[in-house]
Amino acid sequence: MSDSFAPAPEPIAPNSGRPSQLGASSHDASSLLGAFERRFGKLNPVWLRELKQAARLQRTPIILAMLTGMMTLLVCSVGGVASTSAEPAKVGVGIFHTFFSLAFAVVTWVGPAVAANTIAGERSGRTWEALQLTALNAESVARGKFLAAFTYISLYVVMLAPVGALPFLFGGVTASDVLIAFVLLFLMAGLSVAFGLSVSAKFASPAVAIIITLVVALPVSLAVYGGAGVGLSFAAHSLWPGIPGGPPVWLPTAYMRADFGLPYAVFLIFLPLVCASLPAWLFYEVTIANMGAPSDDRSSRLRIWFLCSMPLMSLAAALVTFATHSEDWAYAGSTLIWFCGCFGAYLFAGEPLGPSPRVLTHWQREGRSAFRRFLGPGILRASVLLFCLTSLGLAANLLTGIAIASSAEERAALIAFHGYTVGFFAFVAGFNAWLRARGNQSGGARLVLSVTLFLVIVGPWIAMAMAGMLTSEHDRAILMASPSPTFAIAMAQAIRSSSPDHGLTQLTGCACAVAWAFIGMGSFAAASLRVNKRLQAEAQARNTLQAAFDEEERAAAASGSAVVSG
Q1: Whole-prediction pTM
Q2: Span 169-182, pLDDT tens digits
Q3: Is residue 128 part of a domain?
Q4: Which of 50-54, 246-250, 261-265 has the lowest mean pLDDT?
Q5: In this structure, are residues 108 and 193 in contact, taking their beta carbons and an 8 Å threshold?
Q6: Which of 56, 102, 404, 471 is the most exposed place for a label (fewest CB within 10 A)?
Q7: Burial of 33 (0-12, 13-18, 19+ CB in 10 A)
C-alpha cells in the first residue's frame, strides 16, 4: 500500500515538541505495514477491497456473535447431559468431537457459499468488466478473492476458538490435540473456499453459483465426514491400537499417539499432504481457467496439474501398498488411479479441438517449446497424455504389488487385473476423444460418457443375473459379466483361489480387455480424422472471411483515392 493511503498524523500541539499519542500509534501502524510490504511485497488490492467492503457490513459481528452463542449453548448442553452419567475424561472427549464436528459442518457449508458469491457477484453487479480493465491478471484476482473469503471464514473459526477450550474443563484431551484439530479445521476451510471460488468463476448469477455449490458441498462433506472420519478411524485403530475406533476426529490423536515409522510417514504425513494440495491446486487452476476468454489458453495450466498429480497419486498408491505389504491395497490403489484417470477424462472433455489463432500467435511470440505446445489446447493431445500417465501409474502400482506378492498365483492375478484395467481405460480415453470431436459442447460429451460407463459397468452384471436364473450353470453365468470392467476383480479372485474355471475366466477377461483396447484405438483414430476435418473447415472459413475483409478494404481504399483525385 502506498504512503498516500496511510492515515495522517495528528497535528502537533504548540510547544509540545512531540506528536500526540494517536498520531504516534498511526505512524507506528503505518511503519509496520510498510515494513511488511517491503518484506513480503504489496498486499493484494482485491483482498484489501473485499475487506473494506466487509468491514462496512453491520451484520457481520451480529452473525458471528449469534453463531458463537449457539455453539456455546449446544456444546455446554451436550457436556451437561453427558456429565451426569459419564466420567469427566469421557465427557471432555465427547465435547471435543462434538465441537469439531459442528465446526467442520460450519466451514464446509458456509465457506463454499461465501466464496460462490465472490466472482459471480462481480458479474451480476456489472463490476467484473471494470476489474478486468485493471492491471491485475487472473492469478492476482483469484488469490485476492480466495484470501477475502478465507479471511471471512477464519473469523468464524477464531470466534469459536474459546468454545474449543471447554474440553479442558473435563479433561481427556490435550492441548496438542486441540491445536492440531484447529489446524486441520483451517485446512478444510481453505479447501471449501477454493471449491466455492471455482464454481463462482463459472457462473454469472450468484444464486445459481450458491445453489450448485451447496448441492455439491453438502453430500461431499457428509461423505468425507463419514468415510474419512468415522470409517478410517477403524482402519487407524487396526494399525495403531492406541487410537480409538469410531470417533470422527481421530487424526489429531493419531499424530500424538501413533508410533513413528514408515506407516506413520505414509498415512499421516504424505497422504494428507497429497489429499490436501492436489484438490486445492485443481480448484485454483479451474478458477483461473473459468475466468479466461474462450480464445485464451485455458488448458495448459490444467494439463500441468494433471501431469504432476497423476505421478503423485501413483506414488501414494505404491507407498501404501509397500507400507502395508498387502495385495489388497495394490488392487485398491490401482482402482483409485483408474478413477483419477476417469476424472481426467471428464476434465479434458471440455478441451477445444485445437489451439485458437490467438494462442498460436502468443506461442510464436513467446517461442514456446514443443513440449509446452503439447500441453496446450487440443483434445487429441489431452487424450494421449491421459492414457499414458494413467497407464504408467497402473504399471508402477503393478510392479509394487508384484514385489510384495507372496505366490505365483498372486502375481498372475495382479497382472490379469491390471491388464484388464489398462485395456478398458484405453476405451475410456479414445471414446471420450471421439465424443468431444463430434460435438460442440463439453456437457453433451460428459453426459454421454457418464451414461455409457454406467451401462457398461452395470449392464453385464444384470445380464449375468438373468442368465444365472435361467440356466443351471451358475458358475459359468458369471462369464456374461466379462464386458464389465469390474469383471477384473472376479477374474483376479478366480486366479487367486485356483478355481476349476479360472482358465476360462482368465481367457474371457483377456478377450474382453483386448476388445475394449481395439475399440478405444478405433475411437481415437476416428476422433483424429474428425478433428482434422473440422479444423480444416474452420481454417478455410477463416481464410474466406479474411479474403472478403481484405477485398472490402481494397475497395474502400480505391473509392477514397478516387474521391481525392476527383
Answers
A1: 0.83
A2: 777 788 888 899 99
A3: no
A4: 50-54
A5: no
A6: 56
A7: middle
Q: How far is CA 323 from CA 238, 317, 318, in A?
A: 14, 10, 8
DSSP state of 166: G
C-alpha to C-alpha distance for 104 and 188, rounded to whole angstroms: 8
Report d(CA 506, CA 501) in Å as an integer. 9
Q: CA 41: distance to chain centroid?
A: 29
Q: Which of 117-131, 240-254, 392-406 is the least confident region?
A: 117-131
Cα distances (Å, whole numbers) of residue 457 to 138, 370, 445: 40, 38, 18
d(CA 181, CA 232): 16
Q: Is residue 506 part of a domain?
A: yes
More confident position, 57 or 210: 210
Spatial contact of 50 and 145, defined as CB atoms under 8 Å apart: yes
Is 93 domain-assigned? no
Assess contact for 425 and 433: CB atoms under 8 A. no
Burial readout 527-546 (b: 16 or more C-beta within 10 A, e: otherwise): bbebbeeeeeeeeeeeeeee
Cell, residue 480: 456374461
What is the identity of the amino acid at 354?
Answer: G
Cell numbers standing for residue 457: 459397468
C-alpha span between 508 and 515 (Å, rounded)? 11
Cell 506378492, residue located: 405
The whole-number pLDDT of residue 349 equals 87
Side-chain half-sphere CA neighbours of 287 within 13 A: 29
- Identify the residue whose cell numbers are 475487506: 51
C-alpha cell at 270: 504424505
pLDDT level of residue 515 (50, 70, 90 thresholds): very high
Using CA atoms, how far apart are residues 108 and 487, in angstroms rounded to an integer?
Answer: 37
| Helix ranges, 133-231 (H) | 138-160, 175-200, 206-224
Judge contact between 207 and 132, C-beta under 8 A.
no
Residues recorded for the chain: 566
**Residue 10: which domain range?**
3-40
65 within some domain:
no
pLDDT confidence bin for 35, thresholds 50/70/90: low
